[in-house]
Amino acid sequence: MVDPTSSLGEDVDESNAPTCANCDEPILNSPTHRVVTWVEDEKARRRHFCSDECREEYDG
Q: How many other β-carbons are positioned within 10 Å of the β-carbon of residue 36?
């Protein structure tokens, strides 16, 4: 079953997959995928990361 709230469902291919904010690699069905969300200017914002390591490097 595809989770309708997930942007990484089974029907996502490389051309429309999110990319890592740090290394720019497409993220496809990755168990290490991380999403950071925040509110800015009254809008929800998000950044995708392919791993905890990429997330830490981006913050650093």
A: 13
pLDDT tens-digit series, residues 13-51: 788 889 999 999 999 888 899 999 999 999 999 999 999
Q: Where are the domains of the chain?
A: 16-60
Amino acid at 35: V
The burial of 55, by beta-carbon neighbours within 10 Å (0-12 exposed, 13-18 middle, 19 or more buried), is given as buried
Amino acid identity at 55? R
Using DSSP, state whether 45 is helix, strand or coil. Answer: strand
φ, ψ for residue 47, nearest 5 deg: -130, 135
Alpha-carbon dihedral 2, 4, 9, 10, rounded to 10 degrees: 40
- Residue pair 32/25 in contact by the 8 Å Cβ criterion: no
